[in-house]
Amino acid sequence: MPESQRFEKLVYVSEKMAELCDLARKAAKTELPILIQGETGTGKELLARGIHYNSARRTSPLMIQNCGGMPDELLQSELFGHKRGSFTGAISDRLGLFRAADNGTVFLDEISEVSPSFQVSLLRFLQEGEVKPLGSDKTETCNVRVIVASNRPLKAMAEAGKFRKDLYFRLRGFELEVAPLRDRPDDIPALAEFFAAKHSNAIGRKVLGISASVLEKLLHFDWPGNVRELENEIRRMVALAKDGEYLTTETLSPAILATAPRVPRAGGFMPEGVTLKEKVESLEKQLVGEVLSRHRWNQSRRRTNLVSLALVLPTRSSATGLPKRASAMADSDDDNNKPPADAAVLRFPQSRVRLPGSEEPVKLIGTRALAGTLGAPSEQTTGHWCSRCRGIWYGYLLDVTCPACGNRHG
Length: 410
Prior knowledge:
This protein is of the alpha/beta class. It folds into 3 domains: 5-179, P-loop containing nucleotide triphosphate hydrolases (Rossmann fold), CATH 3.40.50; 182-257, Orthogonal Bundle (Helicase, Ruva Protein, domain 3), CATH 1.10.8.60; 277-395, no CATH class. Helix content is 32%, strand content 15%. Strand 14 (352-353) and strand 15 form a beta hairpin. Helix 5 (116-128) packs across helix 7 (165-171) and helix 8 (187-203) packs across helix 10 (226-240).
């Protein structure tokens, strides 16, 4: 499995989340308000926490308030505070989260659910930094960074008159969109492994890993509850699993177990995009995902058997427009010099591949270039299959000695 990355407690592998977290790190260095949008369960609060703890305010408090379903009076009291006797039940003074978080951060979740009157109060606070507790005739100032989140599109609500436009524009100093889990399946194996380790340690149970059949089912499920639903499923599986065993389909929920592989659109997989380049890149992404899924996203196995992800750039015949055979090894009569029958051969023009031992991504260019375990592709090199090392290396057509083991081919 590709090595997972973290933004505080946010675990991810996908390029979408990497770009989002890079932008969040930049936003954290500023004092601008931040609007985080995304479906329920995608990790908006974790992203907000990551921003706070990567900001200059990290040593000050982070206060969190869910605004959904709260009456105006109670929400005003929670955020702005109140004086004793200002309303029924106000038996003592309350400081309020804005003043309690002075020099820190306040995170307001479900901001789309607040009333128009509260929107006015919040707008004034964002503009002036002033807090007036309920029942008080004095205003106080506090220095707070505001981060808000919504599972409904605020822009559309503002255009429809359901949310103040001036408040929307004030809140979106930075606008971060967290993609649903179904749109970033690369994250599913990494999250599943993280949750399995987390919850097995919590209950003192040893779990060896997650079976390939379970990962396949998890990858095919749509996850309407997103990451929260995935965590609950893994937690349930860990609770039902036996000590010292793998998580298998025996403990999967019936709804996930019954999930069928995603059916391609009519006529098979239809690449997305308008231009030829966009369609080819879409097809490549689909094929690479299938190969990684088949190999259970195992990082060490991917390194030692990289031929299973051999990426071939074929040339096209000017006469027929069909791909030519990509390598001299395909024409060899020696079966031992051929890659395994299940080796995946993928077209990958203009793609970036990180080779073992290399810190920089390599562009696959030229007429015959393979991604292997040794050497580097160029316009003049050809990939050779070494049956002893069971890997691919690069060299000129007549250079048939493997640089790793000295085995001579041809």
